[in-house]
């Protein structure tokens, strides 16, 4: 009888330990496929050690990840820079905030037809992203390349209506950011977001005619952030996620994997 009772106690202890080991919380993060989801994969084991299971949900657009964060389907998302986030809040009435910046993806001007901007003819067709702040960023890069001049008063809210000088009479067309690489062969130039360029096999260092300078306004302003609902900036989940991302391991992964197409901004 005593032996049976002792066996039962041991069994209950073992079951209890097993339940405790599996008692992890889930952190559900929405991300663009490249590079954001790839970077998040690096920290899965680190979060596991802290008692969290990281669930990564990938998206191919810039709207649904914020909608899903706002409605509580996600704990955080990782795909956007803060100017886009603030613009999204203003346009959609959401209340999302940056919990911290992680990396920067240089914009590039690409072409399948030309190898130098001097070859671009008058009236050439140029496509740029059509979403708020990313359009302004594309126009500022075209300005830095000497192709157009943008009204300085417009700043990060500039659109094609704010172009004050266009000596080559370029036809600048706004399209969805996700379609830029897919449309590249059909136009003369495309100014493409870093994540979509990577996702579709473009190397900003080798394939772009012009690259956003790492010390430029763009680099300072457009770092990609972890976004959360307002009030969750200091939650335990958010702190664990940021701590895992702000590691030397992640910086090394970014540098070795993307070789300048993604630039770590980690402290």
How would you explain this protein's 3D organization?
It is built from twelve helices and 13 strands. It is α/β, with parallel strands linked by helices. The chain is globular and about 65 Å long.
Topology of this structure?
Blueprint: H1 2-21, E1 25-32, H2 33-42, H3 44-49, E2 52-59, H4 64-70, E3 76-81, H5 82-92, E4 96-104, E5 108-110, E6 125-129, H6 132-144, E7 149-150, E8 163-165, E9 171-175, H7 180-183, E10 189-192, H8 194-199, H9 204-207, E11 210-211, H10 217-221, E12 224-229, H11 236-245, H12 248-258, E13 263-264
Parallel strand pairs: 1-2, 1-3, 6-9, 6-10
Antiparallel strand pairs: 3-12, 4-12, 4-13, 5-10, 5-11, 7-8
How many domains is the backbone divided into?
2
CATH fold name of the largest domain: D-Maltodextrin-Binding Protein, domain 2
- Tell me the major beta sheet: 6 strands, mixed
Low-confidence stretches: 1-21
Largest beta sheet: strand ordering? 2-1-3-12-4-13
Sheet-strand content, in percent, reads: 15-25%
As a percent range, the share of helical residues equals 40-55%
Q: What structural category do the secondary elements indicate?
A: alpha/beta
Radius of gyration, in angstroms, nearest whole number: 23 Å
Mean pLDDT: 90
Name the CATH superfamily classification of the largest domain.
Answer: Periplasmic binding protein-like II
CATH class of the largest domain: Alpha Beta
| Record field, number of beta strands | 13
Q: Briefly, what is this?
A:
The chain is built from twelve helices and 13 strands.
């Amino acid at each position: 009888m005593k032996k049976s009772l002792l066996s039962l106690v041991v069994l209950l202890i073992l079951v209890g330990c097993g339940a405790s080991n599996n008692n992890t919380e889930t952190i559900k993060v929405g991300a663009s496929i490249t590079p954001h989801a790839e970077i998040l994969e690096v920290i899965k084991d680190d979060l596991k050690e802290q008692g969290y299971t990281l669930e990564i949900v990938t998206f191919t657009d810039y709207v649904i990840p914020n909608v899903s964060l706002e409605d509580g389907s996600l704990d955080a998302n990782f795909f956007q820079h803060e100017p886009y986030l603030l613009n999204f809040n203003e346009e959609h009435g959401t209340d999302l905030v940056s919990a911290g910046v992680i990396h920067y993806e240089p914009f590039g001007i690409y072409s399948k037809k030309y190898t130098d901007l001097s070859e671009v003819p008058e009236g050439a067709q140029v496509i740029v992203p059509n979403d708020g702040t990313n359009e302004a960023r594309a126009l500022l890069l075209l300005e830095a390349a000497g192709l157009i001049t943008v009204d300085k008063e417009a700043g990060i809210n500039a659109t094609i209506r704010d172009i004050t000088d266009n000596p080559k009479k370029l036809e600048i067309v706004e399209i969805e950011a996700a379609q830029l690489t897919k449309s590249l062969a059909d136009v003369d130039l495309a100014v493409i977001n870093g994540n979509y360029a990577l996702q579709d096999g473009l190397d900003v260092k080798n394939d772009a005619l012009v690259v956003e300078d790492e010390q430029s306004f763009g680099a300072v302003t457009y770092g990609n952030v972890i976004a959360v609902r307002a009030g969750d900036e200091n939650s335990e989940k958010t702190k664990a996620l940021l701590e895992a991302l702000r590691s030397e391991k992640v910086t090394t992964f970014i540098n070795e994997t993307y070789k300048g197409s993604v630039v770590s901004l980690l402290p």
